[in-house]
């Protein structure tokens, strides 16, 4: 069985002159819960890009728009898959994520996966591939023939279709100056960090043995967060504590909830609690079944 190491980097970028609304910085995606930002629009989408060694990284792109529709902030959560094990923050692995993102940006290398439409496309599962529904003759095919080309044309394996999208459609154009103005990977990582908000950059690491931990990336190193993460076939749970305040707590909770839903059946039910005291010492607890 092939094991993968999963690494997540979350950061947030705003325009050179951040837009504030009342007492809140509504350009921050995680302010979407504030009532004073109700006239702002917040959207999230999941895109993919290739790593530098053949796997695929995921990227949650969270966009903030002003009441006029102008993009004023973008929050990014990276989910990176890597071979081998990782028992502590690995700077080489983190740098690879940044470099792969930069290359995808420069080479229009972003894509999405969507469900196959059986009324328009040949769709396959583990056992058969079916002709497009509505054709005069409905046929089924051996999936192996679909892989080999056969007579079935371009089949969409397991009902997923990969569509290439532009950098603009990926929602990351706000980072153009940083991407094109950086030297090596370390320089890019440092400059990208300077474009982000004060919220620490969150990384999720999944070890080869099945354990998980979180760390915070400051652009130079990643510091592990105390607590535990567990992901099984039909459940997921997290208990984490830190001293980075409620904004970071909300960011951690939102990412973990989205990531858990991606790994589990989306109809699973999650419960959560978040607490912070006056010293910004916080906990987030999340359980999904």
Care to describe what's here?
The chain is 21% helix and 36% strand. The chain folds into 2 domains: 4-115 and 159-225, no CATH class; 117-155, no CATH class. Helix 1 (91-106) crosses helix 5. It has 289 residues and is α+β, with helices and mostly antiparallel strands. The protein has a 10-stranded antiparallel beta sheet with strand order 2-3-4-1-10-11-12-13-15-14, with helices on both faces. It is globular and about 65 Å long. Residues 1-22 form the signal peptide. Keywords: Signal.
Topology (SSEs and partners):
Layout: E1 4-14, E2 41-50, E3 56-65, E4 71-83, H1 91-106, E5 110-115, E6 123-124, E7 129-130, E8 140-141, H2 143-148, E9 160-165, H3 167-170, H4 176-180, H5 185-194, E10 201-206, E11 212-217, E12 222-231, E13 236-242, H6 245-263, E14 270-276, E15 282-288
Helix pairs in contact: 1-5
Shape: globular
Report how far apart the termini are. Answer: 25 Å
**Radius of gyration using CA atoms only:** 21 Å
Strand content: 35-45%
Low-confidence stretches: 16-23, 146-153
Described by strand count, sense and barrel closure, the largest sheet is:
10 strands, antiparallel
Total discrete domains:
2
Beta-strand segment tally: 15
Strand order of the largest sheet: 2-3-4-1-10-11-12-13-15-14
Write the element-wise H/E pattern from the N-terminal end onward: EEEEHEEEEHEHHHEEEEHEE
Structural class: alpha+beta
Mean pLDDT across residues: 78
Helix share, percent: 10-25%
Tally of DSSP helical segments: 6
Keywords: Signal
Signal peptide: 1-22
């Amino acid at each position: 069985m092939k094991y993968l190491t999963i690494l997540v980097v979350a950061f947030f970028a705003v325009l050179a002159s951040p837009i504030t609304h009342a007492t809140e910085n509504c350009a921050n995606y995680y302010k979407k819960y504030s009532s004073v930002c109700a006239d702002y629009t917040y959207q999230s989408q999941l895109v993919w890009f290739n790593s530098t060694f053949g796997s695929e990284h995921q990227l949650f792109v969270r966009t903030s728009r002003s009441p006029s529709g102008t993009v004023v902030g973008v929050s990014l959560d990276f989910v990176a898959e890597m071979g081998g094990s990782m028992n502590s923050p690995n700077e080489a692995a983190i740098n690879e994520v940044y470099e792969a993102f930069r290359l995808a940006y420069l080479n229009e290398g972003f894509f999405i996966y969507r469900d196959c439409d059986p009324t328009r496309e040949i769709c396959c599962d583990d056992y058969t591939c079916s002709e497009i529904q509505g054709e005069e003759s409905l046929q089924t095919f051996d999936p192996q023939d679909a892989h080999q080309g056969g007579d079935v044309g371009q089949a969409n394996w397991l009902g997923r279709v990969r569509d290439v999208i532009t950098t603009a459609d990926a929602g990351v154009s706000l980072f153009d100056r940083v991407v094109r103005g950086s030297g090596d990977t370390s320089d890019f990582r440092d400059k990208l960090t300077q474009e982000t908000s004060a919220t620490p950059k969150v990384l999720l690491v999944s070890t080869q043995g099945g354990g998980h931990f979180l760390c915070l990336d400051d652009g130079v190193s990643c510091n592990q967060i105390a607590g535990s993460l567990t992901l099984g076939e039909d459940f997921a749970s997290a208990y984490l504590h830190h001293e980075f305040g409620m904004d970071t707590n909300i960011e951690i909770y939102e990412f973990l909830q989205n990531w858990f839903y991606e790994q589990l059946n989306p109809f699973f039910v999650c419960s959560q609690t978040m607490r912070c005291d006056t010293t910004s010492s916080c906990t987030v607890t999340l359980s999904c079944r």
